[in-house]
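Deviations from the work plan: none for this task. Representative record:
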Amino acid sequence: MTPPATQLLLPDGLAAAAVADALAAELPIVTQRAHAIERTFWDTFDGRVHGAGLALVAAAGRLVLSDAATSTEHASAPVGRTARRLFAGDLPAGPPVTEMRALTPVVRVRSRFLPINVLDDIGKIVVRLRVEEPVAQLAGKRLEPLPARLHITGVRGYDRDFERVLAHFDIALGLVAATRPVQDDAMRAAGLRAGGTSSKLKLQLDPGERADAAAVTIARRLLEIIELNLPGTLADTDSEFLHDLRVAVRRSRALQRELAGVFPPEPLRAFRDGFKHLQLITGPTRDLDVQLLEFGDLAATLPESEAADVVPLRWLLDDHLRAARAAMVRELGSDRTTGLLRNWAEVLDGLVDSDETGRPDAARPIGEVAGERIAKVYARMVKTGGRIGDDSPAAALHDLRKKGKELRYLLEFFASLYPPDVVKPMVASLKGLQDVLGRFQDREVQADLLRSLGDDVAALEGGAPALMAMGVLVQQLLAEQAAARAEFHDSFTAFAAKEQRALVKKTFAP
Amino acid sequence: MTVVAAYNIKGGVGKTSVSVNLAWLAAESGARVLLWDLDPQGAATYMLRIKPKIKGGGRKLVHGKTDPRELLKGTDHERLDLLPADFSYRNMDLALDETKRPTRRLARVIEQLAGEYDLVVLDCPPAISLASESIFEAADVLLVPLIPSPLSLRTFDQLRAFVTTQVPDPPRILAFFSMTDGRRTVHREVIESLAGDDDVLRTAIPYASAVERMAVNRRPLADFAARSRAGTAYAQLWEELRARI
């Protein structure tokens, strides 16, 4: 049972000493010596620590994971002053919210604290107060004073005193509760979003708006996601920057294909080539990222006696990843890539006002165009999926997966146009199918990748046992692929169920 | 969670002083600490400026009818809580005797607080009784303050013999010399006689007026006279004990 705690905001310009003087007249208090604390708040790019209601703070050589609202400490560990990037494994034990994302310093705050204790009639501390005067330390050594706050913390077993003191601040002084922690104030001062940077679409469209205007809204958000994730991809901060960049590229390509009728045909062809190129140049790095992210789990399937044999394979994968990444970074930094993104932005800026020749869907309501596309892609999936049998080639499942992605993206783009009780179950059944198809294809890609490394591994020192272990891993991957295939029928049946087909027709078909 | 019981059959040997000071020093070092004042006289509770009373009394507590978490009081140290004394603890033996497996009852109360604390310090009443046996079963370490006199040594030997032969899963016994006076020959001789005993800590707490002032100031030495001779000795004792537990 943690003692109650709350934070109140102090009016502008009210200094800590003035607060102490004002309190001394009303409550039996003792003021302690003021001290300063410098804290660096860490989070992932997408704000997972913040999103979990936690704070990860480095101060005085320790990294502390605590509850953001109450400051209740969950765990702590030493941290070096020069640390600039941490992963879940470096963290003090606590909720594993960060997964594979890197933690980096987000904002620095220097606070002066004045502790004031409220005493009872025999001089025992019954409530702890701390006046905090925080200053955000922004880029370029710029300092930005933040609103001062009063921390009020109860003492276990003295809840009534806590309530009494709280009521005093509320009634007598009219102070209001701080609705957000100090690090959020600091992030705002730094021009950052407190919850981190999301790579989610979060679009709000109007069914009656022009299809080309809606396409611009979607494409701009996708372009923004690409540009937000580009620096982290180039710096290799963590694997998810590249993942989110690639998803945005794939979604952009899906938009270009599915809403081709809103774009002028000729420049669109060049942009489709350009985005395809982006997809190609980032593919090998992502494949190796996935292989390495899953390497531990895969190696764990080996008998204990062979687990160490795959170490040379891991080294080789690391080498290949380094080479693939270097090539990717060159391409992403090239004039071709920067030109592609810049020109795409320019086309989007002028699209709605441009000539409608060759853009038959441009002025149609997006509700109509989107419904057509969703119904059509769904119908095509039902048709092609229904033809897949036990002896169908792997390519048939791969093709179905591609169409599934297309449908998923359409549903994400246009979710705001349709009732959630239709879209959500449809996405759920599609997700079930895509998981199966994804596992089927990913295991094949992973097995192929391992096979392609066979000669290189054999040439390494310790290569022979590694090669044998790789054989076991490939078998394991192929067994998982076969298991995924066995699940296909059930997941497809759920996706193409009669009720679902009727619902799709009713909701989306013209 | 480690349970350290400051225990001696005799009274006035420094159990409360060591309990309060070690609990405070442990909290200072970063541990989450609970001090349970089991002595109905409530001296430790008094020193921490807390009312010596618990809701429902000791009987309900050891009978499992009161949640100990609801009885805890925060002290002036943020990481030190107190389970206060209550005058009803004078009847602890009777209350325990009414239960099945009476010698397990105190351990059960403490087990309910597992996870909240790293260290539990028991300030025990001076006696050897059913309550004492319950303390022996609950504790990982019996910390025994000894006044350096031949009779104290005899009592200590009796305690060692009893605990090691009569208590299932007995606690580690660690004694230390308390209220020592280096000018007194008997004190020096008795301390010397146990110099190599592994059950006796090397740090001795000197007889000092600062210790007596704890009851006047109602604060641990570490809070008002950390650098006094006795204050320094308690800090050394905590470090030595910490290395052993």
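Chain A touches chain B at residues 1, 3, 117, 120, 122-125, 128, 154-158 (CB under 8 Å).
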